[in-house]
């Protein structure tokens, strides 16, 4: 079954991690996915990673959809304007789903230090990368949905509440994306367009696997360094959560909500890539987090 066949999605920040997982699982559901980000073959971003949007687009197509790589730096207004024009030229302005997953802040947070000992430049740059880019994407792409009176915007965040996340700049970025979803939902509701925030649990991304020195084949070995990693989830899990939301005809009723992969897995019939249904919420409650 391909519940998203005929649908058009843009995934902002689809080079790796959650963005790649989301793009590929949208492809699995049959969608046409504009795979956007900064890292392309022969011109990688400053993140120090080798993954590219072309690789992601190929995975989208291999999974059953159509992946279209488009280099977009969401901090550059002309890039986002060009994407807007491309969607009009190639899809007649159709856009059913926008996923704002641009991040780029991992190297900018100094954990274990008070905010005044963090580099101010890095903290502000994190906001530019993780909030301003989302604003740019939504400003130019939401009108395509408004014009057709349908669509969904998903803000990818970390956490499902407003609690402090251990670093002021990181907290500000992640909580701001939640409020972006809620504020956009209020403005978009009269136009029948939904906006939600969505958080994964402990994400087993490419970077996290590298951090622990393991691969997807032996990832459980990392539990010896961090037992919590045994409760981690692959990027496919949040990808299937996004696909389930995008296929739900009643998603407008959820507009403004803060959602989680584990919460949605209780409601929709999807699993992680290995058939598991990790539930970070229950685990965190048991551990007293």
Automatic annotation (TrEMBL):
It holds the Pfam family adh_short. InterPro entries: NAD(P)-bd_dom_sf, SDR_fam. NCBIfam families: PRK08303.1. This is SDR family oxidoreductase. It comes from Paenibacillus mendelii. The lineage of its organism: Bacteria, Bacillati, Bacillota, Bacilli, Bacillales.
């Amino acid at each position: 079954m391909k519940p998203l066949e005929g649908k058009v999605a843009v995934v902002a920040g689809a080079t790796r991690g959650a963005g790649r997982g989301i793009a590929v699982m949208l492809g699995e559901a049959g969608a046409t996915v504009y795979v956007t980000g900064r890292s392309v073959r022969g011109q990688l971003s400053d993140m120090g990673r080798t993954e590219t949007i072309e690789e992601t687009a190929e995975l989208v197509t291999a999974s059953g959809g159509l992946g279209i790589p488009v280099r977009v730096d969401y901090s550059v207004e002309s890039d986002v304007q060009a994407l807007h024009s491309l969607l009009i030229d190639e899809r007649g302005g159709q856009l059913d789903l926008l996923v704002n997953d641009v991040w780029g802040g991992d190297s900018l947070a100094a954990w274990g230090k008070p905010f005044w000992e963090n580099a101010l430049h890095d903290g502000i740059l994190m906001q530019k990368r993780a909030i301003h880019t989302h604003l740019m994407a939504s400003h130019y792409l939401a009108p395509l949905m408004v014009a057709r009176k349908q669509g969904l915007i998903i803000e990818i965040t970390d956490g499902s509440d407003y609690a402090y996340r251990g670093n002021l700049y990181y907290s500000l970025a992640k909580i701001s994306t939640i409020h972006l979803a809620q504020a956009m939902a209020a403005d978009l509701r009269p136009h029948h367009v939904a906006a939600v925030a969505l958080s994964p649990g402990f994400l087993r991304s490419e970077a996290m696997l590298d951090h622990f020195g393991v691969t997807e084949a032996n990832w459980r070995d990392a539990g010896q360094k961090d037992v919590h990693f045994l409760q981690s989830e692959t990027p496919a899990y949040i990808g299937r959560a996004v696909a389930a939301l995008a296929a739900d005809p009643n998603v407008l009723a959820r507009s403004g909500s803060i959602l989680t992969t584990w919460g949605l897995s209780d409601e929709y019939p999807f699993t992680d890539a290995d058939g598991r249904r990790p539930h970070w919420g229950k685990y965190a409650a048991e551990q007293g987090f």
